[in-house]
Amino acid sequence: MAPRKQEEIFQATLELLAGRGYEGLTVEGVAERSGVDETTIYRWWPSKAVLLGTALTESRLLFFETPDTGSLRGDLVALVEQVAGLLTRPPAADVAVAALGAAAGNPELAVGVQHFFADRFSRERLIFDRAVGRGELSPDADPMLIMDLLVGAIWLRAIFRGLPLDEDFAPRVVDAVL
Model-level pTM? Predict the structure, then answer.
């Protein structure tokens, strides 16, 4: 069972992270913004790192439906478009950059971020399972490597290089990987 105002707590956590960075994120600030006592937050999440890790996975802010277009290429193009949208539009982009930056220096938060990516991959895996079932993809293919290449291309282009993702980015990167 979760606290009654869980989504408000997660929303406040991610808003504060986006606006103030990880150092500016405090349980006190989350409590104030969400209208919940600090003790309630600590009862469910023993630290801000655990709270943030859970918020990344459970909040609606970074959620999207796993595409099912009927083809591997179509599913991957739709998925790349969704991830690109998250990584190029605030507040999701600010949350992702701040969380991953902070995780590099915080082992407790790194566990939460790893859980986030494991959760995402478990959802994305359906795309590859369906593609194998349709005969579009070899059972020997490495779905995680494919996702790493696709999402890595988005991160490198949009976040690290600061370049725009044009309209045909998703189909081009999917075609290159496939």
Answer: 0.90
